[in-house]
Amino acid sequence: MKIGIFDSGLGGLIITKAISDRLPTYDTIYYGDTLNVPYGSRSPEAVLNHTQAAMDVLFAQECQLIVMACNTANASSLQKLQQTYLPRTYPDRRILGVVIPTLETAHERQYTRIGVLATQSLVSSKVYEEELHKINPKIQVFSQSCPLLVPLIENDGLKWIDPILQEYLEPLLQNNVEAIILGCTHYPLLKTHIQKFLEKTSIELISQDEIIPDKLADYLVRHPEIEGSLSQEGRHEFFVSDLTDAYSKTAHYIYGQDVPLSLISSSL
Question: Is 268 within the bounds of a domain?
Fold first, then answer.
């Protein structure tokens, strides 16, 4: 059995590489729903449907657990899938999210004024505010939707990113945030761009590619019944729901090396 990593597009390749670097012997399968990216501008119902179809794809490829790297899908679909889909269809499998581990990290570092860069759908869900307030009601959250970032990343448009980033970051800087959560798995690609705007501040970037691998390793230690079922032959497979030359080029850029993308269709 394998570890699956799912994202709405190619951004989750950053998380995949980070997981493979941290846990190199475990077999992994990545699935990017490139046919339907971006999820951030879609309705919660559409996101749930696409995400469930993606879970079907990965479980059919013998994944024991899936890391749902898409923050938008985490907000609108994760709880529903864990509470109804899994017990009904795959009661012995697991789906893990990335939002709660990220928020736990922000809390552990004792920040009380936190900025969030995220998709419109994730900002509208208010999941970051609600979950952080459960941890500490005194935490103030300032969320900024960034609808242009994922399309630019997915379509080789980083040369236009800086003025757009400045527009998105300015409200967070004006609110004197202490840290900024990159609330989309595409956004770690922009860390060096963002740091240029933060170099005269003490603001910390909280990036999921630096958090999730250790959280996953800890999960496996705490759940030996899951860990023991995972194959460890160091095999890594990559699937997408739509394959173009542009996606192959973007995947190479994100992953830092050639990525052998294969096309696989969901049930939708």
Answer: no
Which residue among 78, 127, 139, 184 is the active-site one? 184
Residue ranges of E strands in the chain: 2-7, 28-32, 63-68, 94-96, 113-118, 140-145, 179-182, 204-206, 236-240, 261-263
Is 184 in the active site?
yes
Query: 181, 208, 235: which is the final residue of a domain?
Result: 208
90 and 128 in a single domain? The answer is no
pLDDT digits (tens, 9 = 90+) for 138-188: 899 999 999 999 888 888 888 999 999 999 999 999 999 999 999 998 899
- Shared domain check, 160 and 104: yes
Tokens 């890391």 sit at which residue?
A: 67
Model-level pTM greater than 0.85? yes
Give tens-digit pLDDT for 85-118. 999 999 999 999 999 999 889 989 999 999 999 9
Catalytic residue flag (residue 70): yes
Domain termination residue (choose one: 208, 229, 250): 208
- In contact, 80 and 54? CB cutoff 8 Å: no
Which one from 13, 47, 65, 70 is the annotated catalytic residue? 70
